[in-house]
Amino acid sequence: MKCIRCDREAVYFRVYSGEAYCARHFASSIEDKVRATIRRYRMLDIDDRIAVGVSGGKDSLTLLRILVKIERSFPKAKLYAVTIDEGIEGYRRESIELASREASKLGVEHIVVSFRELYGLTLDLMVEEARRRNLKLTPCSICGVLRRKALNYTAVRIGANKLATAHNLDDEAQTFVVNILHGDLFRLIRTKPVTDRREGFVQRIKPLREIPEKEIALYAYLESIEFQSEPCPYRGLSLRNDVRVFLNTLEEKHPGIKFTVVRIWDNIRSTIEKDLPQVELRTCRVCGDPSISDVCSGCSILAALGLKDIEV
């Protein structure tokens, strides 16, 4: 099979679109899709200070590599690679080293912030404490909230006005289904390609939301990006993992179903969000961060774990 853009042998066939690509044109097609996504949702301006969440996995290192290529045309822009060290024994150290190596190669400042530094305990110790206290907190629920808090804190600290995360098409489709299963309409509506500008929250963008996970993996391989291939040891304990398996099974039988799920989500959100009142942000009385309630979800978790004292 020949590449649709040249006479070279194809290395990849997109079943959902019927396109075949050689290695060079496959890589450029991924970069073109990221540029198109950035334009479609007006994610970036020419003078942005962009904090890129870099875990050391294929998605975040691919995002960093592509954003560096894009931002070469915009000398007023500034990129930072931000890694959150949750403190997962036997897992996170390797990914930090890979992230640091790639950032150095690309000439991007690398900033590492740890859970222990910010919250007093590693994620591993938080999980142990949650079990000891018989709390209904999964490792992923603890990590998800506190990682988001740590990323926003770091982005604010370095003066970034955009926070780019490496959520791909698979992540977006999974999030839609998980929120439906949880009956969480509020989270369903507020999870967007570009978050609203709200005081205290750095605006988040998702440049990889149109790219399937397996295509990101192939891009990383073809571009010789060294990334951590081992999944997080806590991943299999979450509902999201079951949804991931479900959607992958559907995608095998019905190519393009993940795109359909994300389009449905976008259509639902655009239809109903204009009729919903803007949620008023308060200030968390514990940490001072913006919050929809008197105490933010991060401080609530820390309090449940005995790491914060909250007066009633």
Keywords:
312 residues, alpha/beta, Rossmann fold, 2 domains, five-stranded parallel sheet, two-stranded antiparallel ribbon, 48% helix, globular
Compile the SSE list and pairings.
Blueprint: E1 12-14, E2 19-21, H1 23-40, E3 49-53, H2 58-71, E4 78-85, H3 92-106, E5 109-114, H4 115-119, H5 123-132, H6 139-157, E6 162-164, H7 169-182, H8 185-190, E7 203-205, H9 213-222, H10 239-253, H11 257-272, E8 282-283, E9 290-291, H12 297-304
Parallel strand pairs: 3-4, 3-6, 4-5, 6-7
Antiparallel strand pairs: 1-2, 8-9
Helix pairs in contact: 1-9, 2-3, 2-9, 7-10, 7-11
CATH architecture of the largest domain: 3-Layer(aba) Sandwich
- Euclidean distance between termini CA atoms: 67 Å
Instruction: Give me the count of strands.
Output: 9
- What string gives the helices and strands in order? EEHEHEHEHHHEHHEHHHEEH
Number of domains: 2
Indicate the radius of gyration in whole angstroms: 20 Å
**CATH third-level topology of the largest domain:** Rossmann fold
Secondary-structure-based class equals: alpha/beta
What's the number of helices? 12
> Can you give the mean pLDDT?
93
Helix content: 40-55%
Main sheet: strands, sense, barrel: 5 strands, parallel
Strand content: 5-15%
Give your account of this protein's structure:
The protein is an alpha/beta fold and 312 residues long. It has 2 domains: 28-277, Rossmann fold (3-Layer(aba) Sandwich), CATH 3.40.50.620; 280-312, no CATH class. It contains 12 helices and 9 strands. The protein has helices at 23-40, 58-71, 92-106, 115-119, 123-132, 139-157, 169-182, 185-190, 213-222, 239-253, 257-272, 297-304; strands at 12-14, 19-21, 49-53, 78-85, 109-114, 162-164, 203-205, 282-283, 290-291. It has a 5-stranded parallel sheet, with helices on both faces. Strand 4, helix 3 (92-106) and strand 5 form a beta-alpha-beta unit. The radius of gyration is 20 Å and the shape is globular. The mean pLDDT is 93.
